[in-house]
Amino acid sequence: MSDTAARISMDSIMDASLGEVSNKITTTFKKTVLIRDYETEVIEATNSVEFDHPLIGIERMFVTAVMEIQMEYTAYVNLMAKGLITQSEFSIRKKSLEEGLYSIKFKADSILGAGVIDKYINHTNLDK
């Protein structure tokens, strides 16, 4: 590893702006589910959101994670309703999704300051 690479911290990477012109984020969720022996079903969802202000890396990461979690959670609710997964499997995945988002939020709070990223989940100050 070169000295330059070692000096770029994850905080710097997550605080980066790529100079993007568009602030559109598109996420895709895809899961293949075994229905019966040798029979699968593919669940796929795509979602987009466009912001009227620039986003830095950690904001993009947080918004992308929220969008992906919403799609995956919806898919898991449907799988449970169809009886393809158990309540226990659903609960374990839900907890994992929540913990993953918390990890990103924790990092965002350390970069941006406590609670700044909350605007994307609390519907406040979205224009800043």
Q: What topology emerges from the helices and strands here?
A:
Elements: H1 3-6, H2 10-14, E1 24-36, E2 39-50, H3 57-81, H4 87-112, H5 119-122
Antiparallel strand pairs: 1-2
Keywords:
single chain, 128 residues, alpha+beta, two-stranded antiparallel ribbon, 2 strands, elongated
Can you walk through the features of this model?
- The protein is an alpha+beta fold and 128 residues long.
- It is 50% helix and 20% strand.
- The protein has one domain.
- Strands 1-2 form a two-stranded antiparallel sheet.
- A hairpin with a 2-residue loop joins strand 1 and strand 2 (39-50).
- Helix 3 runs antiparallel to helix 4.
- The longest helix is centred in the last third of the chain and has 26 residues, at 87-112.
- It is elongated, with a radius of gyration of 18 Å.
Q: What's the overall geometry? A: elongated
Total individual domains:
1
Order of helices and strands: HHEEHHH
| Major sheet | 2 strands, antiparallel
Query: Which sequence of strands runs across the widest sheet?
Result: 1-2
If helices are DSSP runs of H or I spanning 4 or more residues, what is the number of helices?
A: 5
Q: Name the poorly predicted regions.
A: none
Into which percentage range does the β-strand content fall? Answer: 15-25%
Question: What is the C-alpha radius of gyration, as a whole number of Å?
Answer: 18 Å
Distance between the termini: 38 Å
The overall average pLDDT, rounded, is: 84
Count of β-strands: 2
Amount of helix? 40-55%
Overall SS class: alpha+beta
Quick overview:
By secondary structure, the chain is an alpha+beta fold. It has 5 helices and 2 strands.
